[in-house]
Task: structure prediction
Amino acid sequence: MIMRFCAYWLELKDSDGFTHDWCTLIPALALSYKTSVHSSTAQNLAIFKVMLEKVKHHAKQIINDAFEYAQQKWDNSDTVPDFKVGDLVVVSTLSFNNIKGAKKLKYSYVGPFVIVDLHGTNAS
Result:
């Protein structure tokens, strides 16, 4: 805010005629602000910035480790179905919402159906 105020190199005079050139004081004010201990963090800004960078780096590392762990667990548990044309399969009715009647009287699976064509490895 002070920098924006002093952008026009204003020279203010008080009642005694003393000139206050605030633009020459900005570097000292900025240094004082950056090196003073703040009440909210109990540290100065320079040390807090270094600490914040360490925390960010640690958080990124933890996220990457979690992603690699989840990917490894998925790769170990995922199996590609080996369906072939002509095989008999049954279809789960778990997601069929259009069948009327009591849920416990519905068939869990319908079929068997014959596989006529395969549309990639992900269409199981």
Remarks:
- DSSP finds three helices and four strands in the chain.
- The mean pLDDT is 78.
- Residues 9 and 70 are 58 Å apart (CA to CA).
